[in-house]
Amino acid sequence: MKRFSNKGFSLLEILIAIAILAFISMGVYQTVNQSTMIKERITSEDKDFLQVEAFFARFDTDFSQIYSPLYFSPRAVKKNDSNDGSVSYESEVSSQRFEGKADNGLPIPNVDGDSKGKLIFMTSSHRRRVVGSKESDYTWISYELKNASEENKAAPFVIIRNYQPSDVYAKSFKWDENKEQTVLKNVKDFEFGFWDESKKSFLTSTRELGDANKNLIRLIRIRLVWVDKDGGEKKYEKTFRPLWPYYKALNSTEEMNKTNMPSAPGVSTSGANENDDETP
Question: Using one digit for the tens of pLDDT, what is the confidence trace for 174-212?
C-alpha cells in the first residue's frame, strides 16, 4: 500500500515563485506600455501629417473645378474704328467679383491672387447640405494666410478657407456672413504661384499675368513650410490643374465656328486651327 506525503511547498519556494512571477509581470507590463506609447506617438504624428494632406486634398477639389467661361469661350472684343490693330475687351460687366464678359455673354469671374498667401476664385465644387436651401453648386472660395499665434513664433500662421455659396452674382463679397474654416495650423510660410506660358515660369501674382490671362489660370503651384509639434520644418511644393481640357480660344466665337466648319471636297483645312494641340 502506497503512502502519500502531506508535505507542501516551503516558504522559500513560494517566495522564489512569487519573485519570478513578479519579474515576468514587470517585463510584460513594460512591453505593453512601450507598444502603447509608440502607437500613440505614431497616431499623433499621422494626425498632424494627415492635416497637411487634407488641406491639399481640399484645395485640389476646389481648384480642379474652378469656373470661368474663358475655359470654353473667348473674351468679348470691342470693334475698334481705328486702324492701328489694337484690341480692347468688353467690360460692361464689372464689379468686385466679375470683370468683363465672354463672347457667349457670360460674365467672367475674377481670380484674385494679388496678395501673397491669398486667393479668391469661383468654383463648382459646392454641394448643398440641406435639400431645398438657396445655395448653388457654384460658390466663391477664399484661401488666406493669417497670423493666429504670437506665442508660436516658429509657425504663427494658419490657413483660412471661406466660401459663399449663395447669391454668387452679387457685386461684392460678404465674407463675414460665413464662419471661417481653419484648414491648416502651424504654418511658417505659404505662397501661390501662377504659371505664365509666355515666360515659362510661375509668377507670384495674377496681376503679372496681364489682363488677357489673369482670370484664366491653367496651373497653380503651392509652396508650404509647415512645422510639426517637435519643431521640425516640412517643406512642400505641389502643383494643381483645373479639370477643364486645354482650349486656346480664338478671337471670337464667329471665328472659331468658321475655323471648325467642315471643308469642301478637295479643299484642305490643315493648319486652320494649328494652336489646338498646344499644351501649357
Answer: 777 777 899 999 999 999 999 998 899 999 999 999 887
Cell numbers for 247, please give them. 482650349
Nearest 5°: the CA angle 238, 191, 163 is 90
Grid cell 457670360 is found at 106
User: What is the reported pTM?
Assistant: 0.70
Please tell me whether residue 150 adopts helix, strand or coil conformation: coil
Strand extents, DSSP E, the chain: 77-78, 88-89, 98-101, 107-109, 118-123, 139-147, 157-164, 181-196, 201-203, 220-227, 233-240
State which H helix or E strand residue 27 sits in.
helix 11-64
Gap between the Cα atoms of 35 and 249, Å rounded: 61
Strand partners, 109: 98
R_g of the chain computed on alpha carbons: 32
Answer whether 98's CB lies under 8 Å from 111's CB.
no
Count, residues in the chain: 280
Count Cβ atoms below 10 Å from residue 172 Cβ, excluding itself: 7
**What residues have CB less than 8 Å from 253, skipping those under 6 apart?**
73, 74, 103, 104
